[in-house]
Amino acid sequence: MRAIRSKMAAVICGAATVFSLVGGTGTASAEEGTFIMMGSGLADCPSGSLCLYQNLDYNAGADAMILVTNQHVPDFRQFDFNDRMSSYYNNADTVGHLYSDAEYSGYSYALSPRHSCPDMSEVGNDVGNDAASSVAIRPDPTLN
User: Fold this and answer.
1) Are 111 and 128 spatial neighbours (Cβ–Cβ below 8 Å)?
2) Model confidence over 12-38: pLDDT tens digits?
3) pLDDT value at residue 11
4) pLDDT digit string (tens) for 110-122?
5) Lowest mean pLDDT among 31-40, 65-74, 100-109, 129-138
6) Of 40, 78, 79, the residue nearest 59 (C-alpha)
7) Which CATH entry fits the domain spanning 2-143: 2.60.120.230, 3.40.50.1240, 2.30.29.30, 2.60.20.10?
8) Which residues contact 4 (CB under 8 A, 6 or more apart)?
9) What DSSP line would sit under 79-115, residue for residue?
10) Dihedral over Cα of 38, 58, 84, 73: its sign
């Protein structure tokens, strides 16, 4: 059952990626580093960044916290974002690796380049909704 749920989540999140690539305007540009901003929707995610949204559906309905990064973040507590992520958009050509614990430990979940997911509770993994504590950013091995 767990394998079926994971495959179903991949299909759901994959469909969200197709929608996001077609639907968003994406006028923002990446800043170096990591910061918190208030916003909602995929268009608020700067190009070249991984955006972790506080609420489902990319903070749909109201501005809320977005952790924006293009580098490793060993501990989300430094941004008051520990166990707060509910959706994401990886608007970069790198792979983000979410971890359930600080310092890149515990369970992990890979965030593919140019991929999004509106509901982390659908991934069928222990780094689901409100469960991430750190992220590592790595080059996409398929681009080499």
Assistant:
1) no
2) 464 444 333 333 333 344 557 999 999
3) 43
4) 999 999 999 999 8
5) 31-40
6) 40
7) 2.60.20.10
8) none
9) GT-TT---EEEEESSEEEEEEEETTTEEEEEEE-TTE
10) negative
CA-to-CA dists, residue 111 to 1, 41, 63, angstroms: 22, 18, 23
Specify the DSSP element, H or E, that contains 68. Answer: strand 64-69
CA gap 99, 110 in Å, rounded? 9
pLDDT at residue 61, rounded to an integer: 86
The encoded tokens of residue 10 equal 């991949």
Nearest to 59, CA basis, from 32, 85, 35, 80: 85
Measuring CA to CA, which residue among 56, 44, 41, 50 is closest to residue 76? 50
Asked if residue 85 has pLDDT above 90, the reply is yes
Instruction: Quote the CA–CA distance of 103 and 82 in Å, as a whole number.
Output: 12
Residues 6+ apart with CB under 8 A from 6: 123, 124, 125
Sequence-distant (≥ 6) Cβ neighbours of residue 116 within 8 angstroms: 13, 16, 17, 20, 42, 58, 87, 88, 89, 90
